[in-house]
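Cross-check.
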Amino acid sequence: MVNQRRARHRTRAGKTAASTPRDQTRTTAKLIDVPAIPLAAVLSFLKDTRGVLTWSTQDMVDSLKIDQWETKQIIDILRLQGYVKPALDNQDWLTTSAGEDDSGSKLPRYKPDSVNEALSVLEKNIKLVNQDRQATFHVTEAVAYGDFLLGRSMVQAADVGVRLSARGGKPEDDTRTKQSLDFLKQLLPKTPGIQLHPYEPWMSVRSHRRLL
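Predicted model, tokenized:
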């Protein structure tokens, strides 16, 4: 769920709703239904907003591939948590410093061409290792996402979700073991601009670039 820390209770209709702190009940007259969107997916969107002055509900719709109702509910929750606030025009939104910190965003410092080139090298390395019968692992999923997809002049490092499978064995769920990390380091290009993460299904739902 989007919020893992707030209290929840059941409405008469049986839906899960978010309870609001006492000092916010005056501004939130109705309960907020909680969309079944992973928190990590929402934070990945907030990370993408680093470096822009404002963003719209449509930006979130396009990024996370969700509908307008889900977007409005998520924004209401993020607003209660202090992650976003209305822009001066009361139509768009601003990501707060708390939202920037918790999403793990950084000031954009890469040119998009360099990030895309690094991803192309990683894509090539993945294909080569998957063809190597002596390799300890092969890659079964590889998905890149981030603000490099948005056509900006400067971007952050691309996030890449990777799932490994031991050669001739079952999928390697924990890509943070020493053996897995050593293997992943061999795949990374020498140039910076890529951050690797364990693959999660939502990465293939939001806007992304497939590397496999």
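The first strand starts at residue 8 and ends at 10. Residues 112-210 form one domain. Passed to J.P. for a second look.
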